[in-house]
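Input record, target 12 of the design panel.
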């Protein structure tokens, strides 16, 4: 079941086409990575989902219904460009924003106490936003976004401004929210965060969707049957069916190599060929990272098999 379906979305600004027939389906209870280089169209799609703008063509469904103003209260949006009232006190601001989302003052107070304790913010209530560091302001904005317990949460570069400790704190909260049933659209350029968090991804480039699906399945599709092997002994030769992309015989009697298997050949065949000559200590398949997949699709410049055979005596 999809919480949100964007169907054949086209959006134009004067002579510029920001989105060109883009369709994505976001499963309920998932973390969905919305990826793409700057200017690809991600922000335009987010603005349509949050009803800041409307598409020129296509439609968006929320839980199977045509997206409408009544759904705004069920969506939380943390924009990349944060927007807090600098002169307003933290507690007063969060109460105000919670009530705009339909929460009663009593309910908001109860939830805020829980979040302030969780984020160790008990002394911040009466501080003005302008007196907080950027990272502290980010915590306040994150709470404002999730306080009303939205069904769909849109996070645009949520880790910007955080040190590693607080980035991990927010990451853990994102996972916790997903586990509680919240669906999260996660827009970021940090591919390591995509690897760690996202169940599904869609990649937009030059206004068009060029890739989407479950993260694990996509990574599997880009496998190259290439293995990094390390061990003890001197690796002299392998049957011609194996493509040795690089090999180094080290002075201390060890070796390391990168070897590609042809289609239809299982890893056991390579191991059998190796153990007749050397002791194998490490045998690891190269699974492309999301960063590699991103670069390959956006620029076409990266291919994992570009390394050359090098032998060192």
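The sequence produced for target 12 reads:
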């Amino acid at each position: 079941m999809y919480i949100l379906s964007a169907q054949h979305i086209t959006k134009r600004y004067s002579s510029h086409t920001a989105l060109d027939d883009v369709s994505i389906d976001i499963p309920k209870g998932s973390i969905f990575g919305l990826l793409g280089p700057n200017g690809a169209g991600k922000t335009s799609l987010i603005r349509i989902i949050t009803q800041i703008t409307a598409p020129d063509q296509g439609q968006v469904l929320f839980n199977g219904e045509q997206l409408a103003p009544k759904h705004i209260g069920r969506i939380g949006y943390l924009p990349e460009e944060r927007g807090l009232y600098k002169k307003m006190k933290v507690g007063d601001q969060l109460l105000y924003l919670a009530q705009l989302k339909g929460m009663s003052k009593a309910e908001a107070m109860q939830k805020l106490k829980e979040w302030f304790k969780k984020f160790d913010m008990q002394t911040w209530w009466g501080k003005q936003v302008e007196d907080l560091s950027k990272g502290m302001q980010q915590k306040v904005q994150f709470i404002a976004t999730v306080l009303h317990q939205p069904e769909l949460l849109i996070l645009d570069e949520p880790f910007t401004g955080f040190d590693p400790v607080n980035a991990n704190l927010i990451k853990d909260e994102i996972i916790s929210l997903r586990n509680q049933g919240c669906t999260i659209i996660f827009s970021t350029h940090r591919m390591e965060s995509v690897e760690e968090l996202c169940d599904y991804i869609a990649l937009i480039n030059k206004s068009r969707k060029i890739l989407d699906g479950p993260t694990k399945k996509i990574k599997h599709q880009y496998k190259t049957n290439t293995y990094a092997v390390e061990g003890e002994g001197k690796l002299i030769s392998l049957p011609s069916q194996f493509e040795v992309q690089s090999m180094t015989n080290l002075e201390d009697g060890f070796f390391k190599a990168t070897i590609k298997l042809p289609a239809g050949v299982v890893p056991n065949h390579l191991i059998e060929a190796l153990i007749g000559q050397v002791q194998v200590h490490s045998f690891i398949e190269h699974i492309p990272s999301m960063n590699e997949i991103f670069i390959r699709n956006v620029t076409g410049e990266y291919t994992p098999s570009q390394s050359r055979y090098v032998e060192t005596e």
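Residues 2-219 form a domain with the Rossmann fold fold (CATH 3.40.50.300).
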